[in-house]
Amino acid sequence: MFGLDAVYTVFLILCILAAVAFEFINGFHDTANAVATVIYTHSLKPTVAVVWSGFWNFIGVNVGGIAVAIGIINLLPTEVMIDQNLSHNIAMILSLILTAIIWNLSTWYFGIIGSIFGVGLAFMILPGSHSVALNWSKVIEVGLSLLISPVFGFGFALLFMLLLKKVIKNKEIFTEPQGKKPPPIWIRSILVLTCTSVSYAHGSNDGQKGVGLIMLILIAFAPAFFALDRNKVPADLRMDVRKIEFTLNKMDTTALHEAELNDYHVVQANIASIVKGLQGVVSFDKMDKKENFKIRKSIILIGKKIDGILKNADKKAKAFLRPVDMTILRSNVKKIRSHTEYAPRWVILIVSLSLGLGTMIGWKRIVVTIGEKIGKTHLTYAQGAIAEIIAASTIGVSTKFGLPVSTTHVLSSGVAGAMVAGEGRQNLQMNTIKNILTAWLFTLPVTIVLSGGLFLLFRLIMK
User: Fold this and answer.
1) CA–CA dist 73, 411 (Å, integer)
2) 428 DSSP assignment
3) Are 370 and 34 in contact (CB under 8 A)?
4) Do 121 and 452 form a contact (C-beta atoms < 8 A)?
5) Strand pairing partners for 428?
6) Least confident of 97-111, 306-320, 441-455
7) Helix, strand or coil for residue 375?
8) For the chain, where do the domains classified as CATH 1.20.1440 start and end?
9) What is the DSSP string of 110-167?
10) Of 42-51, 97-106, 274-283, which range is least confident?
11) Given 1.20.1440, 3.60.20, 3.30.70, 2.40.30, which CATH number is that of 234-337?
């Protein structure tokens, strides 16, 4: 008979494979939007286009950072992130993955975000968890990012298209493709460049969702081993924590409210715990794995409590810390968080490979939808270029702030905006628009309820 550790290992492998499969599906569904314009306008041959886009998605995942991945992880309540109960963690991961599968693989990017919201809300109603709070500021940021970004895509594409029609005298760029004849080289260059930009931006944003999901899986199944970035030096963490302690000692605690004063003492206690735990430690590998997780827990609590104290600083009549010291404090908190907010290189590599390979499959349906089913007239060269410029810009800005967006909805909205600028609102095919809006509006609430229910069910089963 297999032991319990073997069963957990099998679960871990299956969950990682499911996450990789989701990213692969994301590639052939979502990334196909990036190549839709160059294929539809015959600027590139399909095989060349999807390989080119796949390559730039791979690059985007590898060099785009992990701000979005960490933002997704931080949607969960702190108590969930520092729970060492393996059964509880398995319940969380199963509810996340099953919700994405049950709802719709093609909209998994919304499904994963909605699932995380649902798990967080469900955790709050568990017995003994009434004091637990979801990271509402992050929830609001992510929710608004997902819901508002298509509106920006539509509006900016409409305005950009109207501006271009007034500025550019050469009307050739405003024509639609003629048969299979490729456009002039200058138009082809623009479309290839915009395709490249969207592909890179997609990899740097959507790829990070896969990284975030795999990190949740790793931390859930092996919290002690993946609690800290083992490539970092314990002495650096100890020094940065000491710097935080030094700055906190300058704080005028009489200006703090009771709740903030309690948070202040929690921070001091966790600083002392880290300093003691790292005394004489030269490598995280040399520490007991449970000690690694204790350090992780202290880092997360220090960051959360200091964020809460500083958030109210501007509202106070009496300053409790000089602005320069607040800046130093935030900088050192960021440094210690880098020990927990990380992703191993192999995780980024398998996500980038999955996304890049997925790009090379299943693109035909998306090309037809983008080119012919959003507007009643066919897509022109200018409309395709503008939609992709707006999509790449929106995704790039969102990635900079660590916010996830949907490439499909941003690009489709950009195409719709460009279509309206050309022939007016009557140029839109409303059935396609309604389908996009339905997925946009209903996926989040449905996945929140579904994942929350599954989480509570699995927690009950795995007591």
Assistant:
1) 26
2) B
3) no
4) yes
5) 375
6) 97-111
7) strand
8) 234-337
9) HHHHHHHHHHHHHHHTSTT-TT----HHHHHHHHHHHHHHHHHHHHHHHHHHHHHHHH
10) 97-106
11) 1.20.1440
